Amino acid sequence: MSELTLRPAGEQLPLPDVDMRTKLAGITFPNPVFTASGCAAAGQELDQFFDVSLLGGVVTKSIMLAPRSGRPTPRMAETPSGMLNSIGLQGPGIDAFLDKDLAWLASRGARAVVSIAGGSVDDYAKLTAKLRGRPGLAMIEVNISCPNVEDRGQVFACDPRAAASVVQAVKRAAPTGVPVFAKLSPDVTDIAAIATACVDAGADGLSVINTLLGMVIDTDTLRPALGGITGGLSGPAIRPVAVRCVWQIRQALPDIPILGMGGIRTGLDALEFVLAGANAISVGTTVFGDPSAPVRVLDELARALAERGFARFEDAIGLAHNPPVLYVPEEPDPVGDELPPPHHPVTFETED
Ligand code: SIN
Q: Which 8-state DSSP code applies to residue 314?
């Protein structure tokens, strides 16, 4: 049996010499790797594997006002390169969360990004008001895009006006100096339009993206595999969709901070999001199989940047929109002058 070697809590990773700091809405984070909401509760379980304060931030599972038991089981189904979940925002309610989970994160010195979810605009305002004066709170992520609600009319992120009204209410109630990020759904025709509505309503940044609405049918039982029938698709299967969404939002809103997520498993996956325009990234579904993934991704991302000659993480943000001219050393022509130089149009003579 192979032995498991755990990193001692608090051990600093040997990162290459790249300045990994990133700024989100005026707050400087030591690095750009966060957890993704819903994949690591409030970080306690992950802390058995690494010190969660080493991450840029810990994004907590979306919390609602009251305790909630969630949707019927089964709540998870496998899909090719992905996972479907239908949790239904199970949680202890905001009061228990504040006393237990946020207090724990603060005691660990972690930067907490508290994800909130409500059934009405008023719910979001009340949740936000409860966060005032709480130590450890670094940001608020407004989950307006949970796919697992009974009424699809409650997916505020599918309508620009509904999204804006939630963001406005949260901004009014938010503690001063705590950035508010709106979490968007990819299940819309024009994600840049929703993003713009949120920013116009006061969002300080955007979390891009939540899961895609999906469904699996069990061909043995001949019925939907999930108790909730539909669920949210996550994992590598959605990465190209997520990168596209980050790209489109960065083009529409060049200055808005973006926390990018969707199927990130490696440092190179993370780099794709950064080049598309993400100022930071969240690592989600992969932690179910590899709990140390967030610190591994951080290490791999730093190495990938160093290998490409970056001294600062921030220099890579959005670079694919305006890529530098790459220097490719000229290779001597191995066959002499008989062939035309590269890119010279080649013509063939035909015999008639
Ligand atoms: C859930 O609890 O159903 C998932 C939450 C989300 O995807 O926003």
A: G
The domains located in the chain, with CATH, are: 16-321 (3.20.20.70)
At residue 327, the 3 state secondary structure works out as coil
Q: Is the pLDDT of residue 275 over 50?
A: yes
- Tell me, rounded to whole angstroms, the distance of Cα 106 from its chain centroid: 22
pLDDT of residue 352: 43
Distance CA 52, CA 93 (A): 23
As a whole number of angstroms, the distance between CA 313 and CA 298 comes to 11
Residue 101 · residue 41 · CB < 8 Å: yes
- Mean pLDDT throughout 174-200? 98
Ligand 1 contact via 232 beta carbon (within 6 Å): yes
d(CA 31, CA 28): 9
With the most atoms of ligand 1 within 8 angstroms of its CB, the residue from 64, 68, 87, 141 to mutate is: 87
Per the structure block, which two tokens stand in for 25? 């809405």
Q: Are 64 and 312 in contact (CB under 8 A)?
A: no
Reading across the β-sheet that carries 33-35, which strands appear in turn?
33-35, 280-283, 258-261, 205-208, 180-184, 137-143, 112-116, 58-59
How many other C-beta atoms can be found within 10 angstroms of the C-beta atom of residue 324? Answer: 7
Q: What is the mean pLDDT of residues 316-330?
A: 87
pLDDT beyond 70 at 225: yes
